[in-house]
Design brief:
This protein is an alpha/beta fold. It has two domains: 6-75, Transcription elongation factor, GreA/GreB, N-terminal domain (Helix Hairpins, Orthogonal Bundle); 78-153, Roll (Chitinase A, domain 3). The chain is 41% helix and 23% strand. The chain is built from three helices and seven strands. The chain has helices spanning 9-39, 47-72, 123-128, and strands at residues 6-8, 74-76, 90-94, 101-106, 117-119, 136-141, 144-153. Strand 3 and strand 4 form a beta hairpin. The longest helix is centred in the N-terminal third of the chain and has 31 residues, at 9-39. The chain is elongated and about 70 Å long.
């Protein structure tokens, strides 16, 4: 993970809650599954044991990822008083004669385009950063270049 991640305050709270659940109830549940599988005997052909070990590895990896994110993330506050597009702002854009679309610019870990949250690392998000209302930005999208006009910030 090379770039410093961004999280909203609400996103950080959600990740802290997930981390607590993984370190508590989820670890306990996997430990119980492992104990039960070990008691069955011969581990070399025990599918329950191998599945529990895989789940344990995934769980521990997710715990490490969440701990890293929470330790290193820059917490962004909603910044709808800004006149420049930055992480933490809501921006309304329009492509040609299409209907305007409104997005909340967040860090990559919280991106959810279907729910109006785009990443600052996405092609659109990266292209919008630093621009003002009225600016037209060109986005190098997978389907080709598109031009977006910034209609409103905030």
């Amino acid at each position: 993970m090379s770039e410093q991640p961004y999280l909203t305050a609400a996103g950080a709270i959600r990740l802290k809650s997930e981390l607590e659940q993984l370190k508590g109830a989820a670890r306990t549940e996997i430990a119980q599954r492992l104990r039960a599988a070990i008691q069955m005997g011969d581990l070399s052909e025990n599918a329950d044991y191998h599945k529990a070990k895989e789940d344990q590895a995934f769980l521990e990896g997710r715990i490490l990822e969440l701990e890293y994110l929470l330790k290193n993330a820059i917490i962004i506050e909603e910044n709808n008083g800004s006149d420049v597009v930055d992480v933490g702002v809501t921006v309304t854009i329009q492509e040609g004669e299409e209907d305007p679309e409104t997005y909340y610019l967040v860090g990559a870990k919280e991106a959810d385009p279907r729910n109006g949250r785009i990443s600052n690392e996405s092609p659109i998000g990266r292209s919008l950063l630093g621009h003002k209302v009225g600016d037209v930005v060109t986005v190098a999208a997978p389907a080709g270049e598109i031009s977006l006009k910034i209609i409103r910030i905030g």
